[in-house]
Sequence to fold (972 residues):
Amino acid sequence: MTAGPALLEIEDVLVTFGGVRAVDGVSMRVEPGSVVGLIGPNGSGKTTTLDAVSGNVRLQSGSVRIDGEEVTDYLPEERISVGLVRSFQDCRLFPELSVEDILMVCEDARHPVGVVSSTLQAPWARRSERRKRQEVDRVIDSFSLGRFRHHRAAELSTGTRRVVDLASIVLAKPRLLLLDEPTAGIAQREAEAFVPLLRRLRDVADCTILLVEHDVPMVFELCSHVVVLETGKVVSSGTPDEVSRDPRALAAYLGASAEALNVTGPTGASTPSGKEREGDRGESDGGRGGAGAG
Amino acid sequence: MAIPGFVLVQGVVVGLNYGLLALGLVLVYKTNRILNFAQGQLGVVAAVFLVKCTQGFHFDYWFSLVLAIGLAAAMGGLSELVLRRLFNRPRVLVMVATIGLSQVLYVFTALPFILPKNLSRPFPVPIHLSFTMGGFVFSPGEVLTLIVAPVVALALAAFVRFSPWGLAMRAMSENADSARLSGVWVRRTSTVAWTLAGVLSAFTAILASPGQTSVLTQPLSPDLLLFALTAALVGAMVNLTVAFVSGIAVGVIYEILAWNITSTASVQTIMFGILLAVLLVRVSALRKGSRSEERSTWLQGSAAMRRATTALRARVGATGVVVTLVVVALLPFVLSVGKSYLLSQICLYGVVALSLTVLTGWAGQVSLGQFGLVAIGAVMAAHLGGSIPLLLLLPFAGAVTAVVAVVVGLPALRVRGLYLAVSTLAFALWIQVSVVATTCWTVPLLGKRLCTGLPNPSSTLISRPSFFGLSLDTTRAFAWFALGVLVVSVLMVRVWRDRGVARRLVAVRDNEQTAAALGIPVVRTKLLAFALSGFMAGYAGVCLALASERFNTNTFDPTYSILVVSMVVIGGLGSIPGAVLGAVYLVGLPAIFGTTSTIQFLTSGFGLLVFLLYLPGGLSEVMHRLGDVTTDGVRWLLERPGVRSHLGGGGEGPGEPGEPVAVLAGAGEAPAAAGEGR
Fold:
């Protein structure tokens, strides 16, 4: 696996459910290191687009390439080998596993140990287990999850589960990260706490992020590029600034009033573009970001 | 292939019974999404009661019939009321509960006011019509079936089509929650469905009984159930008409095969093949509407991943285990030969139960065919027992069985939950009736003979080999050996639990999608569960064969597979000590009170229902609480003044203090810290 953020190219992806064209010829190029937001009304094909990239739905036609490597026919579990990691909207994780075990499972996937050597407790198996536990301990500490270490996921609140989900993402060391509504189902106040969390994640994880989110101010704040979908088609794409002025985007999703963009609690921004200038590190080196919709 | 007319009619007679049984299965599945294993047994109670009424009380036949059917209806409705508490639990657990129910019903038929005094008299039939066709005499009982079964089916069709209950049932089968919100009385509807199922089952049993002598004494006949299930599956478990017609078709196919092929083994093999084919073909139709059940949490407060919270608690637990182990290890010195044999049986059943703990408790794949795998291990013991050392034989038999288990598990990649249970039950029956009972096979296309079975499948003597020069000939020595096998198995399973295997199995069970997204190979992990489970069942099979020093196909009846499922559930699904405790309870207890099937079913049936309904954590939960109480006691003793200095702070309270409470707020800094570390 090569290091560094990955380049994602989606070309003419068509996904149908019965007669419904859920994703209808979407093309997109997500530059390495950029954060691209995918917005649109319900049923516009945002999550299905993520599913198409992560391999959870079958493509009718079209292709998905990561760093030029054709991954269209890869199984979901094979895609981690090219550095693709995704979160799920429902964030169920594994209800019966403790937080510690969930994170250990992430490590298991990255450093598999054979069953026989694990059963016989071969020295290398012990060493690997010890290393994994250290790594997990470190992440648990850094996310302040120590108190929940032995709690099962089913016992956690949605907010805490989302934090665990992020911790597992950090462990998985993604090069391309797909986030499906990371703030869905958590309270406004907690969602606000999530914004800096996601921004740090983007900065430190050193990966490309494709984000689906309904919280438009948050998307405009985090993303260098925004793609607007409607009924499975791309209707607008560009920098948050451009999109917020694009009449098609306004008609499709943002609504008639651009003021909607300004409503986001106490930290609310004046305008999205103003916010970007506020020293958003991901943006400061300009040339890195960028997405082009075809 | 010759198909005389009377064989067809015979097939229709048999098939009508399958069809009625299938109707009951579909009815219950439609309303509650439950696979009712007690469907056959509900009616057996009625059939037995009918005999009691006509022969014991000398009632008029028709009056007795009304009483018997009323009893079955009441039993059906009552069963629904008992099982209702479980309806929001995973479907496979409810299915296990219906197995418990069928065992309780069996015990019920043995009650003095239901069981007739004389079982050998012919089953009462109200008509004396009979006819001859192609030299074959159709008895009044069969004529009755030909008349009554279609009438019953039509009556049911009319009920479902025209009554408001029928509409409610159809609504529930689509979406129970929405049906409830739009004013369908979900609970009452499901009671009605179960009552009807009881009536259907009563007709099945009463119509089927005149033809055979065994219905009254047979507790649970898996082959009958499997034929009915095949029919119900053709109707995707929801279509009543298709299920009934397929039931008749299954009967006709069976009779034609039985007429043309002399060996039961081959007939069973073909029927097994048909069932598997139906399952795999209908898989997408069956999957419809099952999403929510797959998403329900597997266990509430499961014991699978529980660990001691404090050092003192761990010490109390360890002490308990060590003391028990020492006591049990000393037992063979004082026990009689019979009781030593029982001890080894308990240990070895414990190993089989552990194999199911891995498969069902952790990986969530329900197997009703574990004894099919055990049988393979036993065959290996009979073949190789004398020729290779025991220490090699055990892992070798385990490895071979593991391969078989993986093949058995292959359908699990496409079908899941209830249907996998069905296919494994069919597998166990097939292994018993066809594979181990057959000495030599003719390979179909090649025409070669392949001899894998034993010369005398019903009774082959097996001599116990020595173990590292130590003779295992005495029962006492073998008890120690069995205990050793159990201890090694427990240690092995503990390693799997604590060092990485179990968590992967649980992860794939709980959320396949996320596991795949994290990079866990889903297919390989599922098959791994089957392989590990098969490995254990295989060497347990070797030991069980050595214990009885005899190979007998009857010892691998699917009933035993179901017994093992009961062990695991009663012990606490997913718990390692639970599996062992379940074996102690289900093998040890009946042995004390006498090993009749009534006692066997009494302990397991009531055990299953009571534990599933009121103590889902099982016996291990009881043990765990006992440990907690003991720990509290020990802590109280130690914390008295003057004792504390000895302890060195062993008994600190649960939970680590000083952690930030507001995780979300605190987590804001987190990834930065994580980033610094890399």
In short: The domain at 7-295 of chain B is CATH 1.10.3470 (ABC transporter involved in vitamin B12 uptake, BtuC).
